[in-house]
Specification:
The chain has 452 residues and is of the alpha/beta class. The chain has 16 helices and 17 strands. Bound molecules: NADP nicotinamide-adenine-dinucleotide phosphate (NAP).
């Protein structure tokens, strides 16, 4: 075993950074948008702090952009900017390529090209790591370079290095959290101000907390990429974000958040993965979270990741999941680790090199309590009928209430909290009830998270 590890080290993916004495550590930057600019600014502001810690000056040698004439948030020498990727990737003086351009392509090709010529890579790109992490890590291993991606999950919140280094002695059975600040802001405003999802989204866009095209955030794709990376780190399983169980927040109504509050819950977009009986279940979904739990208190644009470990117990990592300065903090930590040759013991590395370590199950087959909001015909025994029909499909309920619907004397709203059941069974029951006319409309179905 030790021989194997020594061989892996000799093969070099943890090879310390080597440079001529007296030379600066040169960074080739791919992208100078929000994050790239934040990184340049932070490196500039932290020169005095970083130089003694790294052992030499850290400087940005070249920066790839699309448009040389675009105004930048921080003044850099014109000669630093280029639109030719080879100026960065083939520059023998560039030691570390920092990829902060985003998107899947051509970022992937540039990362692979950098690895191919023996450069270390630091990236903030969740899409590329989630979808191509296995290949990237295998190639990095082959070429004896490091690829680091702390900034790709939860921005400024350190989670990748803690999972791989500080918690390396632990068995982790579950990891869950809020990894998308935009949706957390929207849900917080819906809860606090009684806004509908669209109204809260428009406010988030006005304040710069949401992109002009927010589809990836509200649809849960962004969170799924981050969860995919966490799953690989914790369980050695690469689950493609696009194949993951994923439900965004766009189907949530103000009424769902009102119901949650009345029942003692907050609503959060959860990214959750757990291992049960050797099978890994992962998914992104709006969840009812018990009001008193730590994760329910995480409001606004903040992120939080909760980890269940056997030795260290439950841990909560929380803070700013995006923004130029928090993301620069994570990028610089990775840059310093690479410069100092600091190694991470990576399950992801093992997963990348030796294949999947665990089976993957369908989230719909993992039992949980569920919240159901339904519209049914207003007739005698409506609650009893809904509960009986759910029970016919093996879904028992612990609570049910009905409410008159404004502007309708023929329909009522029924809210049900189920006992533990598979989502698949709940969905089967609801579609049978709709077919039989017992349910006119399914307002929403949300998973209820266990209190921790
Ligand atoms: N924003 C955050 O708070 C945050 C937090 C954590 C992680 N991230 C991740 O960090 C990455 C960058 O995000 P960002 O918000 O900084 O993006 P951004 O503001 O859109 O900046 C992208 C930069 O990359 C350049 N670029 C894009 N495609 C290019 C191409 N094909 N060739 C050359 N240059 C190209 C752009 O050049 P021009 O300026 O000339 O257009 C721009 O400078 C993404 O992967 C994102 O998911 C972002």
């Amino acid at each position: 075993m030790l021989a194997e590890r020594v061989a892996a080290d000799e093969a070099g993916y943890t090879r310390p950074f080597v440079r001529d004495p007296g030379r600066a550590l040169n960074i080739g930057l791919l992208g100078m948008g929000v994050v790239g600019t934040g990184l340049i600014q932070a490196l500039h502001a932290k020169t005095a702090l970083l130089q003694p810690r790294v052992g030499c000056p850290v400087r940005v040698k070249s920066v790839l952009v699309r448009d040389l004439d675009k105004p930048r948030g921080f003044q850099v020498a014109r000669g630093l900017l280029t639109t030719r990727p080879e100026d960065v990737l083939n520059d023998p003086e560039v030691d570390i390529v920092v990829e902060v351009m985003g998107g899947e392509h051509p970022a992937l090709e540039y990362i692979l090209a950098a690895i191919e010529v023996g450069k270390h890579v630091v990236t903030a790109n969740k899409e590329v790591v989630a979808r191509h992490g296995r290949e990237i890590l295998a190639r990095a291993h082959h070429h004896g370079v490091q690829v680091r991606f702390e900034a790709s999950v939860a921005g400024g919140v350190p989670i990748v290095a803690p999972l791989l280094r500080d918690l390396a002695a632990n068995e982790i059975t579950s990891i869950r959290g809020i990894v998308n600040g935009t949706t957390n802001y929207i849900l917080s405003r819906m809860a606090q101000q009684g806004l509908e999802c669209g109204e809260a989204l428009a406010e988030a866009q006005r304040l710069g907390y949401a992109e002009a095209d927010p589809a990836k955030d509200v649809g849960g794709m962004d969170a799924a990429c981050k969860l995919s990376i966490l799953c690989a780190l914790v369980f050695g399983v690469w689950t493609k974000d696009l194949e993951m169980h994923r439900q965004g927040i766009n189907g949530l109504a103000r009424r769902d958040l009102e119901c949650a509050r009345e029942l003692g819950y907050a609503v959060k977009l959860m990214a959750s993965a757990k291992k049960v009986g050797g099978v890994v279940y992962s998914g992104v979904y709006p969840a009812f979270v018990p009001e008193g739990s730590a994760i329910a208190q995480v409001d606004g644009v903040l992120n939080a990741v909760e980890v269940e470990t056997d030795l260290a117990g439950p841990l909560l990592f929380t803070g700013q999941g995006a923004g130029p300065s928090p993301t620069a903090s994570a990028l610089i930590a990775d840059i310093m680790d690479v410069a100092l040759g600091t190694k991470l013991s990576t399950k992801a590395m093992r997963g990348a090199l030796h294949g999947e370590a665990a089976k993957v199950g369908r989230m719909a087959d993992l039992e949980a309590e569920h919240y159901l909001r339904l519209v049914v015909a207003d007739r005698p025994q409506r609650l009893t009928e809904v509960r009986r029909r759910l029970s016919d499909h093996g879904v028992e309920s612990s609570f049910a209430m009905f409410r008159e619907l404004p502007q309708s004397d023929s329909k009522v709203e029924v809210v049900v909290m189920t006992r533990r059941a598979k989502l698949a069974s709940v969905q089967q029951a609801l579609s049978a009830m709709q077919k039989a006319g017992a349910v006119l409309e399914v307002g929403n179905v949300c998973r209820v998270e266990e209190a921790r």
